[in-house]
Amino acid sequence: xxxxxxxxxxxxxxxxxxxxxxxxxxxxxxxxxxxxxxxxxxxxxxxxxxxxxxxxxxxxxxxxxxxxxxxxxxxxxxxxxxxxxxxxxxxxxxxxxxxxxxxxxxxxxxxxxxxxxxxxxxxxxxxxxxxxxxxxxxxxxxxxxxxxxx
Length: 150
Prior knowledge:
The protein is of the alpha+beta class.
């Protein structure tokens, strides 16, 4: 991780296209299915709908978006890392920041087919609390919960 200069910054709309392109590529690789929404709708979702309930942080490397996390004090809504930069600690940096700002408990959903995400969350203290949540991709998913060790 030391050879990478990663900065964590609040999301700004100037990063919209980069963020959505990275997010879509990462998600498609993770679940093996094309994104169902248009690129333009995805940008609108990021710029207008998510900020109503969530904070959005980006991981940047030389102005290149390499990760995004969408969260509030109780929930992680989205966490995607650029497919070329997975496994080097970016997800952990984002997750640690959100844990520190949480109410001491976080929940999230991940797709059952996304075994890398399951390993990642379980390694970072999340426990399975439910399965089968309805989602627009019509894929089985898993609900996780993290509770602060105090």
